[in-house]
Structure formats: C-alpha cells, structure tokens
Amino acid sequence: QVQLVESGGGLVQAGGSLRLSCAASGRTYAMAWFRQDTGKERKFVAATNWSNGQRTYADSVKGRFTISRDNAKNTLYLQMNNLKPEDTAVYYCAADTSLSRVMTTPNYWGQGTQVTVSS
User: Fold this and answer.
1) Best exposed site among 27, 45, 47, 110 by fewest CB in 10 Å?
2) Cα separations (Å) of 33 from 20, 23, 99, 119?
3) pLDDT score, position 28
C-alpha cells in the first residue's frame, strides 16, 4: 500500500515561489502533481517516473514549474516559480505503476495542500 503526504503549500504574492513536497511510503514507480480549484475539475500539472527521470508538464506550467524527486528520501517535489493568481488551487500528489497511468487515472492520492496566490 502506498501512502502520500504533501506539504509546503501556503499564501504567496504573484511572482513569488513555493516548493511542494510529497513524502511517499511504499514502492512507487511514477508520481505526479495535480491541482483542483474550487468548483473545477482536478487537472494534471506534472509527472515523472523513478526509473529514468522522464518529466512531463501541462502547458500552463511549462517554464515555471519543475518536478523533481529524491530517490533516497522517496520524496517528490514541485518547485513553482513566477506564480500567478490562476495557479491558486489545492495541489495533490499522486502515484501509480507507470507514467501513463499516473497522468490519467492514478490509484494513489495524497490529502492535498492549499496554494493561494494573491494579485
């Protein structure tokens, strides 16, 4: 069984930065970040797999967000720079057995962490 715990959310002004962390227990092969704003559907943000470090991003965050991982700590990160008010959402960590699955229908989810960007 995989358990995921996010941290690092908070309130930041537009143009600022935040780094989210997701500590995983249990074996994971691919991990991702999603976000969901109030009243909207959950959307994919970024993903990576443990084996070769392949990374993929949603167009809305390319060039501003960076997904990375620390294999020794079994922890996933999301560095978010040049934040915009439209980045405001609850950010969720997800895990599954492949990059394609984690980007679409991941089996494991964290509890979420709130990110609020003020204008």
Assistant:
1) 27
2) 10, 13, 12, 23
3) 82
Say whether pLDDT at 50 is over 90: no
Rounded (5°) CA angle 71-1-112: 70
β pairing state of 113-118 and 10-13: parallel
**pLDDT above 90 for 27:** no
**Pick from 28, 35, 36: which is nearest to 99 by CA?**
28
The answer to whether the CB of 106 falls within 8 A of the CB of 97 is no
Q: What is the CB neighbour count within 10 angstroms for residue 90? A: 18
Contact criterion met (CB below 8 Å) for 116 and 12: yes
User: What's the mean pLDDT in 16-44?
Assistant: 95
